Amino acid sequence: MTLGLEIFHNYGLNFLDRWAHVLAGITWIGLLYYFNFVQVPSFAQMDAAARTNAIDKLASRALWWFRWAAAATFGFGILLGLIPEASGEKAMFTRSGFFKSTEGVAIATGMLLGITMFVNVWAVIWRNQKIVIANARGENPAGDPAAAGRSATLASRMNTIFSFPMLFFMIGAVHFFPQGGFDTGSDRAIYWAVTLVLWAVLEANCLGLIGGKGQNLTNWIYEDHKRAIGAGLVLVVIWYALWEIIF
Ligand code: HEM
Fold first, then answer.
1. What are the distances in angstroms from CA 56 to CA 15, 45, 148, 246?
2. Which of 37, 128, 173, 196 can pair with 107 through a Cys bridge, CB separation 3.0 to 4.6 Å?
3. Using CA atoms, how far apart are residues 8 and 18, in angstroms rounded to an integer?
4. Atom 41 (ligand 1) nearest CA
């Protein structure tokens, strides 16, 4: 038996980064589910003083871990595509034709959703939650707290919905999608056309660019967490069916 520092070799580094990526990912998505499934319904039942106190002391701490875990997940995830594989194979993103393979198309879909979620965290959720927190602390908020809370909720629910297919493709890229299907260039073009339309419509919708941010039909899936869970599962079925039909 030899005692080497394998963890500092290419294969060890790839593994180490993969571990860090998933560790940060579960922290991020765990808190996302806490906000959606636990905190929002509980806050709705609290009286105003208790809620204000909880926003100041509890939600602000949870949001710190949430947004930095999102940043770490993103950083380790990009790095994962740039470090040589544990098998000694070239790094994923540098392999020629990688993004034409089924593994490449699957991870690109997962990353599209993951990166969109990351941008939603920093550019929509956190930007608006800062206003909500400032208001709870009696500081001068840089906007209308009720409107900010609504914008953050819509993006947070969209992230919950996206997280289901995101993880499906993220894990499936290595463990499922490479096993079947052989794609041609035109198949791929159709897949990406449908995928990008689906993604753009959903993201535009949560930003209020389609039907506004009110309680209307287009926002039905965001109004409670059970609908968001249902929508996430439906989205997995739609994306999987698309994959099966096309490839
Ligand atoms: C924020 C954007 C994200 C990027 C850019 C990203 C990128 C990646 C990359 C490049 C891989 C390697 C895939 C492969 O080896 O073929 C991967 C795998 C993975 N990612 Fe992400 N990811 C992101 C978000 C997330 C999130 C939020 C989670 C939630 C837990 C997550 C969980 C995973 C898991 C479980 C794997 C598979 C590990 C394995 O099977 O060995 N990722 N990701």
1. 38, 17, 16, 49
2. 173
3. 13
4. 18
Q: What are the structure tokens assigned to 56, written together?
A: 């100041």
pLDDT-derived band at 1, boundaries 50, 70, 90? very low
**What's the helix, strand, coil split of the chain in %, to 5?**
80, 0, 20
Please provide the DSSP assignment of 195-221 as one string: HHHHHHHHHHHHTTTTT-SSSSGGGGG
Counts of helices then strands in the chain (DSSP H, E): 9, 0
Q: Which residues contact 132 (CB under 8 A, 6 or more apart)?
A: 55, 59, 141, 145, 148, 149, 152
Please give the distance, rounded to the nearest whole angstrom, from the Cα atom of residue 183 to the centre of ligand 1.
22
Average pLDDT over residues 165-174: 96
pTM assigned to the model:
0.95
Kindly list the protein residues whose Cβ atom lies closer than 6 A to any atom of ligand 1.
Answer: 18, 21-22, 25-26, 28-29, 73-74, 77-78, 80-81, 92, 103, 107, 111, 114-115, 118, 167, 170-171, 173-175
Closest C-alpha residue for ligand 1 atom 27: 25
Distance 99 CA to ligand 1 centre (A): 15
Q: What is the dihedral of CA 140, 145, 151, 153, to 10 degrees?
A: 120
Residue with CA at minimum distance from ligand 1 atom 12: 80
Please identify, by atom number, the ligand 1 atom nearest to the C-alpha of residue 85.
15
Gap between the Cα atoms of 119 and 103, Å rounded: 24
Question: How many CB atoms lie under 10 A from the CB of residue 42?
Answer: 12
Q: pLDDT-based confidence at 35, cuts 50/70/90? A: very high
203 touches 209 (CB < 8 A): no
